[in-house]
Amino acid sequence: MACFLVPGTEAIVVTAAAFILKKAEQNKAQVSIGAGTSEIKEPAKKGFARKLFWLADLLWGGVILLAFEHLWHGEVVPFFPFLTAATEGSAAVQEMLGEMASVGVVMAVLVTAVWGLMVAVSYAIEKRPAPENAEASA
Amino acid sequence: MTLLVTVFAAVITTAVWYKKADEKMMLGPLCWMFWGASIMWLVDAIFEYAELKAAYFTPAPEDMLNDAFLGLSVVALALVIWVIILLIKDPRGTVRNRLKKK
């Protein structure tokens, strides 16, 4: 009914956190050379902010496509109050909130868990020696 | 059916991303979109299975057709979003060069 709103809310929070972290990492990477400063962009690219953007992208991608599905099924409308259940009485609203608390929360948790696994695997891959025929990294 | 179509799209896009390893084609956002939606629809499918049990695997032909149509529409929407991102960010400078020529 409106389960995508839960991962949608997480997406907003994660995106904001990723931008804040990215800025902090870039500030940290500034190296003073004499009187002036020069910015080293490479550490910011490899930092945790980049990995946090993976989660934001996963969440936003899923939310956009799920919002389209809800529009398709008439559960979301492009005019106020946007959620069809909101016009169908308190029982429908109750059902919608129940679905958000169950399906929506599990969606957000599973996406985050998959991302956590991806981050762990990515750290392991980064530590692994490059294969002999590996292409130069982009 | 929507889940299946999206999972296939996610796998194919990821395989193409891995093979080409071309950041200028910006296949990353497309992969994230398909995988994000696949995980979310997987949760939806699990909840539906818990409710319907075995009946979940024998949908009515009309429902299946509607879901397949939805799945293809979702893929089309994701591709359109990807093309828009590609043209706006223009990592190869193709759009910029074309506009400059005129």
List descriptors.
heterodimer, A: 138 residues, mainly alpha, 4 helices, B: 102 residues
Please state roughly what percent of the residues of chain B sit in beta strands, choosing from under 5%, 5-15%, 15-25%, 25-35%, 35-45% or over 45%. under 5%
Mean pLDDT of chain B: 92
Oligomer category:
heterodimer
Determine the structural class of chain A based on helices, strands and strand pairing: mainly alpha
Question: Which sequence of SSEs, written as H and E, runs from N to C of chain B?
Answer: HHHH
Mean pLDDT score of chain A: 85
Task: Specify Rg of chain B, calculated over alpha carbons.
Answer: 18 Å
Termini Cα gap of chain B: 46 Å
- What distance lies between the first and last C-alpha atoms of chain A, to the nearest angstrom? 42 Å
Can you put this structure into words, describing what you see?
The complex is a heterodimer of chains A (138) and B (102). Chain A is mostly helical. Helix content of chain A is 67%, strand content 6%. Chain A has one domain (5-127). In chain A, helix 3 runs antiparallel to helix 4 (90-127). The mean pLDDT of chain A is 85. By secondary structure, chain B is mostly helical. Chain B has one domain (2-101). In chain B, helix 1 (2-20) packs antiparallel against helix 2 (27-52) and helix 1 (2-20) runs parallel beside helix 3 (61-89). Chain A binds chain B through residues 3-4, 7, 54, 57-66, 68-69, 72, 102-103, 106-107, 110-111, 114, 135, 138, and chain B through 2, 6, 21-23, 28-29, 32-44, 46-47, 70, 73-74, 77-78, 81.
Topology:
The complex is a heterodimer of chains A (138) and B (102).
Chain A: H1 5-28, E1 30-33, E2 36-39, H2 42-46, H3 48-72, H4 90-127
Antiparallel strand pairs in A: 1-2
Helix pairs in contact in A: 1-3, 1-4, 3-4
Chain B: H1 2-20, H2 27-52, H3 61-89, H4 94-101
